[in-house]
């Protein structure tokens, strides 16, 4: 996703290179250097009148496939092509990636169209994902289906040789433990479709899931962004019960938010949280969300890669970037899936669906992109930590190294800039990097065992840690490689 920092354009999200080799950041004006399509965050799905909130692919909006958020950039990230702001956040947004391309967004680049508008509004050509509500398509499909059924019924004759299979208890929706149907039946009741509306009436829908019995719901920040300043939030369960909700806290950099149901029911069943650190490539995945406004949709796939460096934003000039080291899945993720859970085969949450790789081509006559089998989720270990901080203090806490790094498109590493934001020092005096002996011009190539190919990749990796964690930094200075250990610092809030 792209973000804006110090008035500078945010650099494009880095390509998702196979681990451990990281790939360069995607170009803000086109496909990544390797020819891949830009990654985009899932835009919110616009609400559909009289049909309940339409789930969004990203966290909000028509479809929930947003470009991965990695959290706010480490202290003082330099905008593409220029010095990074010193110790400040967020870094400038990547140029191309966006939450959703041509999505149903309100004026000014909202995540979704106004709730009064059944059809999605254009998203001003942002990013690779497009939010879209398939109201017209669904209505047309319904009419066609109804007419076909009527004609078939009228032409039926007593000479028909069709044979109907016995129910065999299928209507009971009882499946053996461990099956996808069983996991879906157990998990769906703990997911919600979130409808966010701003004071001006703009908004969209997304997905969320029950985090605890007190009524806290975890979702993406971009799903609830429209309702941050006095807007309206509602959460609807698959059984049709709808609750008003309020924002407890939101982390734009991580793209995580927590909302709380008002008058929450006493029988809430939180989804079990898994361990994203133990996820392996090839593990089965199950995604729940509202792609293109189709609530309570379940799709399946596998973990196709881990530790993908992803950056995303809605592509607007005022948007701030989010960075993450994402779980990659080929489960079908579309706009409207945003904020929904990515489950393992046992039904435990291993990630929050947040972004998709987009071809930039539209679908359903809306110009909105669909799934191409490359979806990205925020690892649940990171999201859990962020959610707990938001519930406790209402503000996110970010780990930092205390140095400004360049966000230029490169594969050589994350270079510490010569100056920070507004002429400040690139290396914070007394900060972690300063204490470890790092200096402007040093190029960081590894953080622990993770290869660092760019500034955005470094940001995403830093944010998978907590303040106080000790990490090993490998860097080059004057052609010589050095290794130091530093203790990560902390920064509270998104600004």
Would you give an account of this structure?
By secondary structure, the protein is α+β, with helices and mostly antiparallel strands. Helix content is 12%, strand content 26%. It contains six helices and 24 strands. It has a six-stranded antiparallel barrel. Strands 6-7-8-11-10-9 form a six-stranded antiparallel β-barrel. The longest helix has 20 residues. It is globular. The relative contact order is 0.21.
Cross-sheet strand order for the largest sheet: 12-13-14-17-16-15
Give the helix/strand class: alpha+beta
Can you give the helix content as a percent range? Answer: 10-25%
- Estimated radius of gyration: 22 Å
Brief summary:
This protein is an alpha+beta fold.
Main features:
single chain, 495 residues, alpha+beta, 6-stranded antiparallel beta barrel, globular, disordered N terminus
Furnish the topology, listing elements before pairings.
Blueprint: E1 4-5, E2 8-9, E3 39-41, E4 44-45, E5 61-62, H1 135-154, H2 180-187, E6 191-197, E7 203-210, E8 216-219, H3 221-224, E9 232-236, E10 242-251, E11 256-261, E12 284-289, E13 297-312, E14 322-329, E15 341-343, E16 349-357, E17 375-379, H4 380-393, E18 397-400, E19 414-415, H5 432-435, E20 443-447, E21 450-451, H6 455-462, E22 470-477, E23 480-487, E24 489-492
Antiparallel strand pairs: 1-2, 3-16, 4-5, 6-7, 6-9, 7-8, 8-11, 9-10, 10-11, 12-13, 12-15, 13-14, 14-17, 15-16, 16-17, 18-24, 19-20, 20-21, 20-22, 22-23
């Amino acid at each position: 996703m792209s973000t804006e920092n110090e008035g500078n354009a945010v650099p494009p999200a880095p390509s998702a290179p196979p681990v451990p080799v990281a790939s360069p950041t995607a170009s803000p004006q086109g496909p990544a250097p390797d020819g891949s399509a830009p990654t985009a965050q899932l835009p919110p799905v616009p609400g559909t009148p009289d049909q309940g909130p339409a789930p969004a692919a990203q966290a909000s909006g028509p479809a929930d496939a947003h470009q991965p958020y990695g959290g706010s950039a480490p202290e003082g990230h330099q905008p593409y092509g220029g010095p990074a702001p010193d110790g400040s956040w967020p870094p400038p947004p990547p140029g191309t990636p966006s939450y959703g391309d041509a999505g149903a967004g309100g004026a000014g680049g909202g995540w979704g169209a106004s709730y009064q508008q059944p059809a999605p509004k254009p998203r001003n050509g942002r990013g690779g994902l497009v939010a879209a509500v398939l109201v017209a398509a669904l209505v047309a499909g319904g009419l066609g289906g109804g007419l076909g059924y009527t004609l078939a019924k009228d032409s039926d004759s007593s000479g028909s040789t069709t044979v109907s299979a016995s129910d065999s208890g299928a209507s009971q929706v009882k499946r053996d433990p461990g099956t996808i149907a069983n996991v879906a039946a157990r998990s769906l009741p703990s997911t919600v479709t979130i409808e966010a509306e701003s004071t001006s009436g703009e908004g969209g829908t997304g997905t969320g899931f029950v985090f605890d019995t007190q009524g806290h719901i975890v979702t993406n920040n971009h799903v609830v962004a429209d309702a941050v300043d006095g807007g309206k939030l509602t959460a609807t369960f698959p059984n049709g019960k709808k609750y008003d909700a309020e924002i407890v806290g939101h982390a734009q950099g991580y793209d995580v938010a927590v909302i709380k149901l008002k008058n929450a029911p006493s029988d809430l069943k939180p989804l079990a949280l898994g361990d994203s650190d133990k996820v392996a490539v090839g593990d089965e995945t199950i995604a729940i969300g509202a792609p293109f406004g189709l609530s309570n949709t379940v799709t399946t796939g596998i973990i196709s890669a881990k530790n993908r460096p992803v950056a995303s934003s809605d592509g607007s000039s005022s948007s701030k970037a989010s960075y993450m080291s994402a779980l990659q899945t080929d489960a079908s993720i579309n706009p409207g899936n945003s904020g929904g859970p990515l489950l393992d085969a046992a039904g435990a949450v291993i990630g929050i669906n947040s972004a998709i790789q987009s071809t930039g081509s539209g679908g359903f006559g809306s110009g909105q992109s669909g799934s191409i089998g490359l979806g990205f989720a925020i690892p649940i270990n990171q999201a859990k930590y962020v959610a707990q901080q938001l519930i406790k203090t209402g503000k996110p806490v970010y780990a930092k190294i205390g140095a400004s790094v360049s966000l230029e498109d490169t594969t050589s590493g994350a270079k510490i800039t010569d100056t920070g934001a507004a002429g400040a020092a690139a290396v914070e005096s007394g900060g972690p990097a300063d204490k470890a002996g790092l200096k402007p011009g040093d190029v960081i190539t590894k953080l622990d065992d993770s290869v660092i190919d760019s500034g955005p990749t470094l940001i995403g990796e830093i944010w998978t840690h907590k303040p106080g964690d000790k990490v090993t930094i490998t860097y080059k200075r004057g052609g010589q490689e050095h290794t130091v250990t530093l203790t990560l610092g902390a920064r509270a809030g998104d600004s």
